[in-house]
Structures are given as structure tokens and as C-alpha cells.
Amino acid sequence: MKRKYLSIAIGGILLAPAAFVQAQEQQAVPAGTQATQLDEVTVTARRRTESIQDVPVAVSAFGEEQIKDLQASTVEGLQGAVPNMNIAQGRGSANSVNVFIRGIGQPDALQTFDPGVGMYVDDVYYSRINGALFSLFDIQQLEVLRGPQGTLYGKNSTGGAIKLTTKNPFDNEGGAVEVTAGDYGRLEGRFYVSGKLSDTLAGSIAGAKITNDGYVKDAVTGKRYNDDDTEALRMKLAYKPTDNFSAVLSLDTTKQDAALTLGRPMAPLLQTSLAPAGVIVLQPGETGKWNRRAQTSFKDGEGQYLKHSGASLAMEWEINEQFMLKSISSYRKLKTKSYIDIDASQYELGDVLVALDQNQKSQEFQLHYDNGSNLHATFGAYYMKENVPSYQEAYADDLFSFLGAGVPFLRTIGDDLTTTSVAAFAHVNWEFVPTWTVAAGVRWTKDKKDYDRTTSTFWGAPFAGLNGTVAFDAKASWTAVTPSISLQKEFSDNLMGYVSANRGFKSGGFNGRANTVYDTEHAKFDPEHVWTYELGLKGSTADHRMRGTATAFYSNYSDFQARVSQDVGTFPVLNAAKLNIKGIELEGSALLGEATTLSAQLGWMDAKYDSFEDFRLDPSYAGYDPSVNHDHVPFSPDWTARVALQHVFSLGDNGSLTFGGDVSYRGDTWLSVDNRKVLSQDAYTLVGAYGVWDSSQLTWQVRAGVRNLTDKQYKTEGQEFASVGNIQTAYYGLPRNWYVSVRYNF
């Protein structure tokens, strides 16, 4: 089965010429119009608008129609569409996203750990994975940059970056209203309205209301979990008084109020008996196919709440024909209150409340120079200050027993993390002789972090004498220099090749799970660094009916920040590992005839640890656990592949019918740093299909589709806290689900 789908993927790609480039399918045109070539794709991967074929960066781009054809409602819908990327809803959370690109990401979801893939909306950096499960309701374009982006994007983009660009009011006059309904109580509404208020002023407003009843059910109470109830609104005001100045003010807010996100306990849940001493099995680990039934110790009303709001002001001045100045100012505020049942059972073993009240402000300046022919330069400065106070509670009344009765246990945590980040960067692109271009850049970054933490533990009788508080505060700063260089050759008008080297830097920090005196003395961990070397080829046929890319890369990744599970309540963070990661990525699209589009992506990756220093694997260590190993890098399947086919039937004056579908494949994936077998997912294949009717002038659109057509059951994430009740919880992807949407454009 594995070879079968890989063969399909490779065959689809080879329909493109010997050179490959990621390409979008045709944009919507009036029904009956026949396409003769694939549309040109432009990206802003290097902080300026360029053809995707001219950029020496591995980048995939998706417009509004392509996102719909992916059947993506949030950024999680990109799973399978980008080679060597793993993107999933964060473990146990309705409002966070976990992203790995080329084996690099954020293994621990806590807010004191930084992401390894940068998330940007309209060039504003979002520093937390909480609140980053974006609903795609007014997106102009979405770009995924693979590999370190340390020069132009800075820290915490070691794996790559995901860039969302929302619609500009001047460029998108008119609007649309869309309603979607589906099974599991899915009901969604979206709208977008934009127009000129005067010759120099334009505005837009976009909104979305997204609900579903949930895919997981309590068999006893009938209550549903893993649901959604999200409201989002974005307003923009664009001002262009002259040809050489423009400004866009953007205001947005998102609110989510959902029930718990429950997983499945994969290993036996254990209770420690203090007297008599021993271990009690509370619940055996589940095996076989999951019936999507779960229980929790939390009460009604203890769910997951988020409010995420912000404002940004982007300004551009064309100083003269050569120089342009950009300014991007932003302020964001994120508030969450999430109950998370980590053990996914009716017992209190690892149940927590995590409440954040984060805010960040940032300012970026860019000065662009273009001599109009062979030289372009970008100079910039960046400042960000982030404050993340949080309050947490951990409930574990069933973790210990004494004389047959549970021992009440509560832990409260108050912490506050402040990060100040400054950077300066420069990047030059120079065609030094015809057809040969060199691009080089460097960024200097300084991160300063201040951290305060207080942990109080409360035991019930007869162990109240063990109650106590552990507190500490610490500060540290790190600097990094992240250069990049590429050499590019245009072999012809339609074929380009490049080689590049890029360095990435992920900030150090403090262990947000430091609950003991020993932990506080070893709370600091150092930054991660990666060097990635890349060879790429991009091209198209002369008639622009086939395009594609081929990329090979090698990454040297050091000081991997691994959070491990040691003793009860002890979770050290180790700069444990060095890795080497190598891979190949192919992407291509072809216009077959006048109405059929074929696209395919294929990724192969070999991620391995050169070394992993883990004291728990020393047989002389009292907590030695032979079930732990580091044979596999988490969230790094060896193969990822996808083939998509779309055909348009003209109905003349009655519009057009479009039918499409895709098949995606993902190899064996490990969901925890400790490589516990129950938190792994065997290779699997997903199938999706859709049909669309467009009226002749594209005023009306009706779309119907089904995701996960074969109802494949597969794991996407895992919680690994084996030292606490043997918690090993898996989270699953969506079951088969269908929907119908109606859209009116005006």
C-alpha cells in the first residue's frame, strides 16, 4: 500500500518537466473561459514581492481558491499539502497549533517554550502557539517557507515560517457571504465587505462564526467534546493620499469558547499506594480502534476559553525611485483559560488549568533599495517586548492512595515571563553578471528573558505536613548572528537553480515545569541553532502549462531542547541532542488540456540524532526506563506525499461544474521525544473529494465535499508524562465528515 501511493505521487509530479515549481491552480474566471496556462504566482518570502520562480527559497503558496480546494477551515488544513511539514491542533487544546517543518518545531506546548516555526499575519510575528490555530476566513495568500529564516524573519524560525496575508481593501472591492453546514453539527458563517470610501481611503470588514458539536462523546452523560465555537472579526482601513505613501490599519479579535479537547489513554493509568506500598492499575491502556468515547473528571463549564485581539499599522513610503521605507507596528493581547484533562479519564491524575494573559508589542523598520536593474538591498531593525503571566493548577486526587483511600493533591503555580528582543539585519541581492545572482544577509539578535515562578503544593490528610512552596526568579540573555547566502543561476527564461546556506536560532529560556528545588537550580536551558544547506531547481515549460520545483537539503541541528519526564512531578529540560536531517522535496502542477489541473507534492526526510545525552538511560540511574529510546525524531515521517486532481465542466450560460479530490500519504510518525510505542502512528493515507458549481458570472457558488473519505483513524498528537500515573495520551484526527456551503459574491 505504501509503495502504491508513493508511485502515484511520483507519477503525478513527473507529468511536470524536469524542473519543478509549486504552482497554484487557475484562479476563478467566468464560466466557459478556457485556461491556456497556469497563472503566475508571486510571494513575499524575501520581504518584497517576487515571482515564486525567482526566489532561492523552498516556498509553497496558496491563494483563496486553493485553500478552499484543500478543504481547510483552519491552518491545520495544510497538513499533507506541504512536503516535510507536520501541522496539527495542539495537544489537548482547542486554540493552539503544533508545527514541525523538516523535523524542527516545539516539542513542549507550554508557554515558556518558544516555537520552532514562525507564524506571521500581515508580517506581524505571533510569539505563542496558543491562539495560532487561525481560522482562514479573509486570507489573500498563505505561504509556507521551509528551512531557517533567521536573516529576514529572525529567531524562532529555525524550521521555517508560515505567512498569512489578509485582503487589502483597495485590491478587493466588493464582498461575499458564505454559509456552511455539515455533520457533527457543523455550522459556519463567513462574510467579507470591502470598498472605497473616497479616492484615498478604503475599508473592509470580515467576520466568521464557526461551530460544531464535537467528535468525541461521553457514553454515560452524552456530553460532546472536541467541539468548536469561534467568533472572529477583522477590520481594515487603508489610506493612500499619494502614489508614494500608503498606510493600512488593521484591528482584529477572535473569541473561542469550547468544551474540553479529549484524547485517549494509550497506556495503563497507575496509582501509587503509599501504604501499603505498591502500584494500582486504575484503567488499562486502550488498544484497537477507538470508538471516540471518553470520560473526564472535569465538570460542566470547565472548558477552554480564548480571546485574542490586536492592532497593527503598516506604512510604506517611496522616498524616491531607489528607496522605500516600511514600518510595521503592532500590539497583541492573548487571554486563555483552558482546562486540560491530560490523562483523558474520569480520574484526577494529570488534570490542569492553564490560564494566560499575554501581551506583546513590536516595531519593525525596513529600508529597501532597488537600483532598477541588478541590485536590491533590505536593511532593517526589529523590537519586540512580550509579557506572559500565567496561573496554573494541577489536580491529582487519584495519583496517590493511603490505606485504600485517595490522597487529595493540589498544586498551584504563578509565573511571569518577560521577553525583550531586539535585532538588526541586512540582505543584499546582486546580479553580478548576467544570469548569475548572489544573495547574502546577516541578522544580529539579542534576547533577554526575566522569569518569576512560585509553586505551592497542598496535600490532604495525612500528608498535610508535606505542604510547601518553591519559588525562584531568574534572568538571562542570549545573542545570535544568523547569516544566509545563496548563489542563483538562470539557465534559461524558464529554468533556474540555486544553492544556499542559512542559519537559524531558537531562543533559550527557563523550564516552565520547575516544581522542585532541584528543578529551579537547573531551570535554564540554552538556545538551539541550525545550519541548513540547500540545492534547488525551479522551472516551467515554455507554454507555462507545467511547472515545478526540486529541492534537496541537509541540516545540522544542535542543542535540541528536550523536555523529559523524570520522577513524579519532575520534568527537566535538556539541551540534549545534535541532529542531522536530510531530505528531498518535489512539487509540481500541470494544466492538462483546457480544464484539468494536476498537482503533486512529495517529501522524503531522514532525521537522526547524532547524539542524545539522557541521564535516564543510564542503567545505574534509579529511574532507569528501558522503554525509552531516541531512535526516532518526533513529528518527522520519512515520506509525505499528495496528489490532487481537478476538472472543470463548462455548462455554458448555466455556469460550470468542478470536481476534485486528493490523496495524501504520511509515513510512520512518532509523537513524543521518548519514542514510546503507544504514542506513534503507523503510515496512513487520507482521501478527500469535493464538487463545486459556479454561476456564469461567479455570483453564486455551491460547494460540497467530504474529508477523510475512507474514515481512517489516525493519531496526530500525544501527551507524554509517564512519570505521573504513566500518562500517555493520544489525540486523533477528524473522522469522515461532509459539508455543503453556499456563497454569494457581490
UniProtKB/TrEMBL annotation:
<keyword id="KW-1134">Transmembrane beta strand</keyword>
<dbReference type="GO" id="GO:0009279">
    <property type="term" value="C:cell outer membrane"/>
</dbReference>
<protein>
    <submittedName>
        <fullName>TonB-dependent receptor</fullName>
    </submittedName>
</protein>
<keyword id="KW-0813">Transport</keyword>
<keyword id="KW-0812">Transmembrane</keyword>
<dbReference type="InterPro" id="IPR000531">
    <property type="entry name" value="Beta-barrel_TonB"/>
</dbReference>
<dbReference type="Pfam" id="PF07715">
    <property type="entry name" value="Plug"/>
</dbReference>
<feature type="signal peptide">
    <location>
        <begin position="1"/>
        <end position="23"/>
    </location>
</feature>
<keyword id="KW-0998">Cell outer membrane</keyword>
<comment type="similarity">
    <text>Belongs to the TonB-dependent receptor family.</text>
</comment>
<keyword id="KW-0410">Iron transport</keyword>
<dbReference type="Pfam" id="PF00593">
    <property type="entry name" value="TonB_dep_Rec_b-barrel"/>
</dbReference>
<feature type="short sequence motif" description="TonB C-terminal box">
    <location>
        <begin position="729"/>
        <end position="746"/>
    </location>
</feature>
<keyword id="KW-0406">Ion transport</keyword>
<keyword id="KW-0732">Signal</keyword>
<keyword id="KW-0472">Membrane</keyword>
<dbReference type="InterPro" id="IPR010917">
    <property type="entry name" value="TonB_rcpt_CS"/>
</dbReference>
<dbReference type="InterPro" id="IPR039426">
    <property type="entry name" value="TonB-dep_rcpt-like"/>
</dbReference>
<dbReference type="InterPro" id="IPR012910">
    <property type="entry name" value="Plug_dom"/>
</dbReference>
<dbReference type="GO" id="GO:0006826">
    <property type="term" value="P:iron ion transport"/>
</dbReference>
<feature type="domain" description="TonB-dependent receptor plug">
    <location>
        <begin position="52"/>
        <end position="161"/>
    </location>
</feature>
<dbReference type="InterPro" id="IPR036942">
    <property type="entry name" value="Beta-barrel_TonB_sf"/>
</dbReference>
<keyword id="KW-0798">TonB box</keyword>
<keyword id="KW-0675">Receptor</keyword>
<keyword id="KW-0408">Iron</keyword>
<feature type="domain" description="TonB-dependent receptor-like beta-barrel">
    <location>
        <begin position="297"/>
        <end position="709"/>
    </location>
</feature>
